[in-house]
Amino acid sequence: MIEKNESGEVWIYAETQDGELQEITQELCGKARDLADKLGVSTGAVLLGKGVESVASGLFERGIDKVYLVEDELLKFFRSSPYTHALVDLIKKYRPQIVLYGASNLGRDLAPRVASATQSGLTADCTNLDISDVTEKSGTIHKNLLLQIRPAFGGNIVATIVNYDHWPQMATVREGVFPLVEPDKNRQGKIIREQFIKESESNGMGNYLGLNAVEVIRREVAKRKINLKGARVIVAGGAGVGSKENFGLLFELANLFGGTVGASRAAVDSGFIGAEHQVGQTGSTVRPAIYIACGISGMVQHRVGMDGSAKIIAINNDSSAPIFSIAHYGIVGDLKQVIPLMIKSFRERT
Q1: For the whole model, what pTM was predicted?
Q2: How many helices (H) and strands (E) does the chain have?
Q3: Which terminus, N or C, of the chain has the lesser number of Cβ atoms within 10 Å?
Q4: Residue 85 CA to chain centroid, in angstroms?
Q5: 230, 224 in Cβ contact below 8 A?
Q6: CATH number of the domain at 10-125+161-203, out of 3.30.565.10, 3.40.50.970, 3.40.50.10610, 3.40.50.620?
Q7: What is the pLDDT of residues 44-62, one digit of tens each?
């Protein structure tokens, strides 16, 4: 277990692929900067690999103060054991108080291994993070803890999880929940180069040198034809749309606005539209300028994927639907009547 270090830094694990920062890492930079500013500490990023130093400037531009760089031939390709080994050694040496990972396939593999090796807590798939004092029932006050916020019990509630005693405080974060910060090209930071110690009894990883990655072969897959995360306008439909044919109205409205069509899980499960359109806890997390929710009840599983939208317009024939509690504008009515009127009005004005 790592001793508490209340002056420790806020770290992120910097995930790269083919010499480029992954988007989830860029999102984490902004949140790490926000958390560190609240704590009055520095930000750090752990960068592991071979020939990856060039991406450090991108981390500095997005709010990172220090990059902890470990390069070695054994780190050229991601493998669980050596990456865990390297990260655990850094954590034990520098004792950050917070470490964040993207909830990617790699992050979901790496984070629990590091948590186990350091005897730390880990909250998976967070949708928000904050800093606050926390008071136990006994009256004990814990200063400046990381609030780890995520859906729980199948998405029926949003839970806030705190870690009193086991540090560093660690979490994986879903892609798309934090906005990308505008890079500052003039911003600079410090690179701290560390050696990769291939075997260390202290980190509990054991000897993994008998296994090596010789080559990584990537299979090209068809790219998604839609870009929910980058859309400024999303017209999304739920089970209340009623049929695949009725989704045609949503496509027509989205096309008029130059937008993209999204969907709730209920609509996808009903076969009204493909899974690549799904928004929510088990789909994409989006932050468009305008989100038009059509026939979507607004359960928390869907809301966690879109409640960061700048403007939410809800269309539902049930005036008590939960979606109206977060909507900026609400229309109670049959979407099969409301949407054609919206389309007609828009065309008359253009």
Answers
A1: 0.77
A2: 8, 17
A3: C
A4: 24
A5: no
A6: 3.40.50.620
A7: 999 999 999 999 999 999 9
